[in-house]
Amino acid sequence: MNRTQQVARLRGDYQRELALGTERFHAPRRTTCPWCGSSRLRTRLRTVDLLQHKPGAFVLDQCRDCAHSFQNPRLTPEGLAFYYRDYYDGLGAEKAEWFFKLQGNRRRYLASARALRPFGTPRRWLDVGTGHGHFPEAARKVHTTTVFDGIDISEGVTEAKRRGRIDEAHRGLLPDLAPGLAGRYDAVSLFHCLEHTPDPRAELTAAKSVLAPGGHLIIEVPDPESRMSGLLGRWWLPYLQPQHLHFIPFANLRRELESLGCTVVAVERHEPHHPVDLVAAAVLMVGHALPPADEPWHAGPPSGLQRMARTALFGASLPLLAGAYGLDELLAPVLSRTGFSNAYRIVARNGSAA
Q1: What is the pTM of this model?
Q2: Helix, strand or coil for residue 37?
Q3: Which of 92, 132, 96, 69 shows the shortest CA–CA distance to 6?
Q4: Residue 111: CB atoms within 10 Å
Q5: Which fold, 94-233+260-273+344-350?
Q6: Residue 39 and residue 70 in contact, taking contact as beta carbons nearer than 8 Å
Q7: For the sheet containing 185-191, what is the strand order?
Q8: pLDDT per residue over 285-317, tens digit each?
């Protein structure tokens, strides 16, 4: 079955769901910060789905006291299922696989794996939110004797095991599965995972519980304090609405880890930067301006004229995209060290410092 046939087959299901409205996918709006409980909130961002272009509107609020940012109102589990559908799997599986295999991503995976090397070689490592297992596949080049397991809610984790990228697959949510994995791992990674979770604190508590004493937790998340977020606004890729539910400032995450009895042993606020901000913003802008593609969440397929216009306009945008990509690469060494880095990393030891 080709893609056009897949879209036609799925359109009826999507249209029946959308006929009921998208408001039902949102929980009641919060009046207090989910991190510190303060009622001093401000609106940080209003946007739409700039990735798949599914219907709906999304708001990020920020706490004026602790600076935590969060989706408000937050998507319900049903809403998350709707907006994740056909992004990493289904119609989007091939595109997602291509993206995660990009050379730039592989370099990031290797850098993340090396960040734990000063603290020894883990015997067993759990990668949370592993997806199709691309990080463990790359990390084996750095930690050649380590056993890598993965956990994810999608069927991708099963495929990762089938392809030999991980040794053991756990399908589900970490807080649910943690009791059966208590103390089993010397290393647990949460790479761009916490921002997707409805309750980051529960995720951190569960991650610590599966660590052996002296084991290490390594976390990478988008940096909400990046100056680029203010410069680009809704076009800043790490906002990634509606998937990203929480944006945790560095100081908040560090304090939370310490309150759990962990010792922060390494911090990196520059090197985890992924130089894609400008080209991603350009892609999002172009995608927002183009006539719609043939997707099942649109009422019908585009007309022949719309298809021709989309192809022509996208072709005309290629010099812009190429220029933005070049600027990202050229400016990365400067931007990542002047407050524009789009991510940060923390390594924490389970227990007191060695």
Answers
A1: 0.94
A2: coil
A3: 92
A4: 16
A5: Rossmann fold (3.40.50)
A6: no
A7: 168-171, 147-152, 124-128, 185-191, 211-222, 343-350, 262-268
A8: 999 999 999 999 999 999 999 999 999 999 999
Contact between 156 and 129 (Cβ < 8 Å): no
CA dist., res. 154 & res. 172, Å (int): 8
> Which residue carries 């009921």 as its tokens?
20
Contact 24, 61 (CB under 8 A): no
Pairing state between β 211-222 and 57-63:
unpaired
Is 49 within 8 Å of 1 (Cβ atoms)?
no
Strands 262-268 and 343-350: what pairing? antiparallel
Tokens of 87: 């992004």
Quote the CA–CA distance of 312 and 308 in Å, as a whole number: 6
Domains in the chain: boundaries: 3-92, 94-233+260-273+344-350, 277-334
How far, in Å, CA of 34 to CA of 60, rounded? 13
How far, CA to CA in Å, does 244 sit from each of 215, 241, 284, 296, 316? 28, 6, 16, 23, 31
In the numeric block, which tokens belong to residue 135? 């990080």
Tell me the C-alpha distance between 257 and 252, whole Å: 9
| CB contact at 8 A, 278 and 236 | no
In the β-sheet with 41-48, what is the strand arrangement from edge to edge?
41-48, 57-63, 69-71, 246-247
Give the tens place of pLDDT for each residue, 206-264: 999 999 999 999 999 999 999 999 999 999 999 999 999 999 999 999 999 999 999 99
- The separation between the first and the last C-alpha atoms of the chain, rounded to the nearest angstrom, is 57
Cα separation, 257 vs 64, whole angstroms: 22
Long-range contacts of the stretch 161-166 (C-beta < 8 A, 24+)? 161/133, 163/132, 163/133, 165/132, 165/133, 165/134, 165/136, 165/137, 166/127, 166/130, 166/133, 166/136
